[in-house]
């Protein structure tokens, strides 16, 4: 301001301190307005038009997140600060203006960092290697830390103390801060663990009954993970819960290309018996069973000849249940929609009061839900339809029709 007074005196002008201050502030204001118009009204608008017309994705992403707008505001703050130091460095007004300019620079530096992180996240989602990583929660954690650091620096600038003094004073408030920021801190640590251990990615099928989640992961944030369930409802899970609790991730199944069918039917044990010659000859007409029956007959005949005993308790014979199990194994191996390179078997489970469970354990050659359900239904439709050919019955609790049939047999008219 004194420089302006001296400069004016050379040309015969006399200004008071107040007048000089008003003139200097007017110069700074006009300069700031001119620079703002040039940067925002001309340069940035021209850049945005070029970005919209361009096919380059990176230009559109940078424009979308306002990075250059915030950098322009930083430049305006630097120019105002430089002018205040140049013209008003020995006045109280200059100190106030410089302080405001520095706070302005810090604020928009923080916002520019936010824009830069958003741009990096957007670019990361465009690459296959990083698209499924839970980077959003990590970037949100970085934003939180940056905001805390910027806040400490701005407060220290306002009170004129070193940031180290504020940071040392935060030690006494550590317990309070841990309580207030518990979820963000736990979420940040959980996000790093999820990313480092490749536990969960966007788009994965997550099942977590404790929180009622069963669907695709749509968002992995700092404090929450959003799951779009198959009924189109949205379930929100705390990020830290994915590390502290157990959950099922179906991405391995999707990557393998095969989905497991594991379902059993209950056989009425009273329908299990040895195959008669007539039943055996009838079942030999089956293309799938003929090799098994021929091989089994040869094996049992050789064993029985060696034993030389015709007693039923000592001889070995085929059963309708064992033959049915062999038929189902051959049927599944011949099925065009099952995976032959994965586990395929038909096995008995421990009998219960509801009968003898016969379990089908096989993988389909698709992971598409609708196709999988159709294949599974077709297989069990066939099983229920052919089980009678083997003299077996499916166990089920008596129905109203069964009770009416029994009542009809026991009625006096039926006698």
TrEMBL record:
The keyword Transmembrane applies. One of its GO terms (biological process) is cellular response to osmotic stress. It comes from the Bacteria. InterPro entries: LSM_dom_sf, MS_channel_C, MscS_beta-dom_sf, MscS_channel_2nd, YbdG. Pfam families: MS_channel_2nd (PF00924), MS_channel_3rd (PF21082). One of its GO terms (molecular function) is mechanosensitive monoatomic ion channel activity. It is found in: Cell inner membrane. Gene3D superfamilies: 2.30.30.60. It is a multi-pass membrane protein. Residues 183-251 form the Mechanosensitive ion channel MscS domain. Keywords: Cell inner membrane, Cell membrane, Membrane, Stress response, Transmembrane, Transmembrane helix. Its main location: membrane. GO terms for cellular component: plasma membrane. The chain crosses the membrane at residues 20-47, 67-89, 101-121, 142-159, 165-192. Residues 331-393 form the Mechanosensitive ion channel MscS C-terminal domain. Belongs to the MscS (TC 1.A.23) family. This is Mechanosensing system component YbdG. It comes from Tenebrionibacter intestinalis.
């Amino acid at each position: 301001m004194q420089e302006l007074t001296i400069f004016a005196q050379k040309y015969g002008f006399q200004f008071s301190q107040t007048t000089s201050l008003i003139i200097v502030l007017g110069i700074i204001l006009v300069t700031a307005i001119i620079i703002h118009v040039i940067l925002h009204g001309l340069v940035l608008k021209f850049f945005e038009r070029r970005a919209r017309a361009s096919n380059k994705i990176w230009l559109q992403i940078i424009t979308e997140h306002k990075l250059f707008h915030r950098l322009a505001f930083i430049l305006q703050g630097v120019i105002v600060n430089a002018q205040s130091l140049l013209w008003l460095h020995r006045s109280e007004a200059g100190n106030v203006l410089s302080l405001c300019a520095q706070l302005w620079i810090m604020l928009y530096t923080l916002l520019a960092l936010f824009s830069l992180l958003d741009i990096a996240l957007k670019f990361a989602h465009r690459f296959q290697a990083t698209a499924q990583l839970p980077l959003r929660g990590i970037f949100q954690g970085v934003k939180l830390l940056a905001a805390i650091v910027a806040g400490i620096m701005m407060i220290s600038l306002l009170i004129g103390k070193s940031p180290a003094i504020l940071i040392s004073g935060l030690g006494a408030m550590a317990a309070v801060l841990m309580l207030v920021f518990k979820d963000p801190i736990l979420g940040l640590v959980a996000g790093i663990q999820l990313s480092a251990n490749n536990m969960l990615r966007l788009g994965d099928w997550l099942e977590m009954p404790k929180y009622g989640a069963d669907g695709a992961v749509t968002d992995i944030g700092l404090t929450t993970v959003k799951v779009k369930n198959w009924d189109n409802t949205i379930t929100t899970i705390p990020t830290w819960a994915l590390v502290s609790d157990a959950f099922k991730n179906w991405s391995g199944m999707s990557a393998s290309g095969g989905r497991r069918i594991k379902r059993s039917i209950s056989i009425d044990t009273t329908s299990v018996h040895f195959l008669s010659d007539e039943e055996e000859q009838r079942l030999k007409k089956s293309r799938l069973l003929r090799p098994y029956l021929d091989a089994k007959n040869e094996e049992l005949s050789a064993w029985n000849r060696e034993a030389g005993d015709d007693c039923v308790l000592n001889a070995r014979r085929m059963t309708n249940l064992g033959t049915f199990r062999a038929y189902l194994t051959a049927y599944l191996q011949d099925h065009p929609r099952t995976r032959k390179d994965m586990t395929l078997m038909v096995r008995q489970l421990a009998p219960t009061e509801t009968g003898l469970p016969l379990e089908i354990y096989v993988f389909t050659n698709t992971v598409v839900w609708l196709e999988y359900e159709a294949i599974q239904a077709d297989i069990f439709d066939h099983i229920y339809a052919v089980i009678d050919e083997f003299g077996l019955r499916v166990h089920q609790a008596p129905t109203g029709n069964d009770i009416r049939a029994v009542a009809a047999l026991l009625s006096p008219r039926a006698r």
